[in-house]
């Protein structure tokens, strides 16, 4: 009701006095109620929509074990405040050790199934409807290479890139792999007699040097210079930021992430991460000459080293394989290749240092196959190193560098114990294995260090060569020791897909009697 004093209304009088009149309060309450009704209807509608479009997933998850899920957040609270690699490892281990496979974990409104039974892993890895990587790979910000591509573009590329690790190519790598391992043991003389130290960086340099000189065909002599040190040191910071983002819900949307301080650090470390592939692409700039192009055209199925094959694919299909895509292919193989080999080798060395009797047996085997310190190992020699291979496998069983394989279903897939799960369901498969059974009684999918199925590790045949050869060179000339024990090791999970031992490769290095290295 408006009473007027001359030309001055009562409402204006109250407002001048700083008091809100009752009629205005009623107006506001009405407005707030209208907004609340709108918001609640919208939430109800959205909830109904989610429930309806994901009804298959809700059906599938019913009856499965898993942490309690709440509306909107699902079981996301499990990751609350758990954003460091150690904490992430603990959460993931807790989930897989508490709930039976397949365990249903709702992350927000997305259903993630954790499978850790060999039969379940087999059903997933053999299925043609499970060839897409899980969504969390997007946080690495590299998504057009062979490792991350969606299945429809990946298939043709993988068919070509399989040729890069054919027997004839691997045979051709042997002198370089030997030479790089020889450099490693020569450099290790510098660590003899020093107190216990983490030599992970040295192992990383060896791995990157070997990958560059073979898979990329470019020898930068990375163990003799510091050219790769910044790249290698940057990796953990980059992966820590990716891990934090994955475990922090409000950092998921790109629009919010770019406002954070972490984004600035991610951009900086990302630049360093891509610096290696930039150097490689610069080195290859003048590579595509008419002669090379003619060879690409005439021999499209000829086995070539990885980098040449990528350039051949780009020449054949320039519209779909631009410079950016070439860079992603290179970044992914450089990272997937060197990091997996370096971490696995570091753990094998640590395990040998912890188990002297095992180390002595490896030494004996190497000496029985190729005792001369200057002599190279052949492919036949490598095949004879059976005990050495068992030591590598046991280390990979205990510390698989890729502990989780994340895949996304594009159609219904059924496993023995999984009823059905539909589009957009994510599957995290944690590999836990048992060594108690006799090898012939074990399920073939109970030990998968390189995964299995058509999207398994591209470089698994190659990986065995540098690992066995470096280990043989090492065991021939050195003895490693450590004060660490198994229960002191701290496990970390980076970016959900990478397992690390926080202590790296903390050892003392002793030169064996009779070794002439550095003398
Ligand atoms: C000890 C050494 C290695 C281990 C334990 C390892 C393990 C793995 C695992 C578990 C995967 C995931 C497979 C899946 O999703 O099913 C993978 C993928 C891959 N690895 Fe390896 N890897 C190693 C060395 C290498 C090397 C040396 C290279 C290259 C030179 C390489 C290149 C790749 C690539 C390109 C993929 C993606 C394959 C695709 O998506 O088609 N890896 N690796």
UniProtKB/TrEMBL annotation:
Write down the CDD domains for this protein, in alphabetical order: CYP313-like
Q: Which organism is it from?
A: Culex pipiens pipiens (Northern house mosquito)
Family label: Belongs to the cytochrome P450 family.
Instruction: Give binding positions for heme.
Output: 457
In the bilayer, the protein is annotated as: Peripheral membrane protein
What the protein does? Answer: May be involved in the metabolism of insect hormones and in the breakdown of synthetic insecticides.
- Where does the UniProt entry say this protein principally localizes? endoplasmic reticulum
Q: What is this protein called?
A: Cytochrome P450
């Amino acid at each position: 009701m408006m009473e007027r004093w001359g030309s001055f209304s009562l409402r204006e009088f109250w407002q001048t006095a700083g008091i809100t009149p009752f009629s205005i309060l009623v107006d506001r309450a009405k407005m707030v109620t209208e907004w609340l009704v709108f918001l609640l209807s919208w939430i109800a509608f959205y909830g109904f929509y989610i429930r309806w479009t994901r009804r298959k997933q809700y059906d599938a998850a019913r009856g499965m074990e898993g942490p309690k899920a709440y509306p909107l957040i699902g079981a996301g609270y499990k990751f609350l405040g758990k954003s460091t690699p150690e904490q992430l490892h603990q959460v993931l281990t807790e989930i897989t050790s508490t709930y039976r496979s397949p365990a249903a974990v709702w992350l927000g409104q997305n259903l993630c199934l954790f499978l850790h039974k060999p039969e379940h892993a087999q059903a997933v890895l053999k299925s043609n409807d499970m060839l897409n990587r899980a969504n969390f790979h997007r946080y690495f910000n590299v998504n057009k290479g062979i490792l991350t591509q969606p299945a429809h573009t990946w298939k043709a590329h993988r068919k070509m890139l399989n040729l890069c690790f054919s027997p004839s190519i691997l045979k051709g790598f042997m002198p370089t792999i030997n030479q790089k391992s020889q450099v490693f043991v020569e450099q290790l003389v510098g660590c003899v007699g020093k107190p216990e130290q983490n030599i992970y960086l040295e192992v990383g340099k060896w791995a990157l040097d070997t990958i560059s000189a073979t898979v990329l065909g470019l020898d930068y002599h990375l163990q003799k210079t510091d050219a790769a040190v910044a790249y290698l040191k940057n990796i953990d910071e980059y992966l820590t930021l990716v891990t934090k983002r994955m475990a922090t819900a409000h950092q998921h949307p790109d629009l919010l992430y770019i406002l954070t301080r972490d984004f600035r650090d991610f951009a900086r470390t990302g630049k360093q991460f891509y610096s290696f592939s930039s150097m490689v692409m610069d080195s290859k700039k003048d590579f595509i000459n008419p002669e090379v192009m003619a060879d690409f055209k005439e021999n499209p199925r000829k086995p070539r080293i990885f980098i040449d094959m990528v350039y051949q694919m780009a020449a054949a299909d320039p519209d779909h394989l631009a410079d950016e895509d070439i860079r992603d292919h290179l970044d992914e193989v450089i990272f997937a290749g060197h990091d997996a080999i370096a971490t696995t080798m570091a753990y094998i060395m640590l395990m040998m240092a912890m188990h002297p009797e095992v180390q002595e047996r490896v030494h004996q085997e190497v000496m029985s196959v190729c005792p001369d310190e200057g002599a190279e190992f052949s492919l036949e020699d490598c095949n004879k190193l059976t005990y050495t291979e068992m030591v590598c496998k046991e280390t990979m069983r205990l510390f698989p560098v890729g502990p989780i394989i994340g895949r996304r279903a594009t159609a219904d897939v059924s496993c023995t114990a999984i009823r059905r799960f539909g589009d957009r369901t994510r599957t995290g498969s944690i590999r836990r294995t048992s060594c108690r059974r006799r090898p012939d009684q074990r399920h073939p999918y109970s030990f998968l260090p390189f995964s299995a199925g058509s999207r398994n590790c591209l470089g698994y045949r190659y990986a065995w060569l540098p690992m066995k050869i470096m280990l043989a060179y090492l065991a021939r000339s050195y003895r490693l020791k450590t004060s660490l024990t198994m229960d002191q090791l701290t496990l970390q999970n980076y970016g959900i897909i990478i397992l690390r031992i926080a202590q790296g490769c903390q050892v003392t290095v002793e030169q064996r009697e009779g070794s002439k290295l550095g003398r």
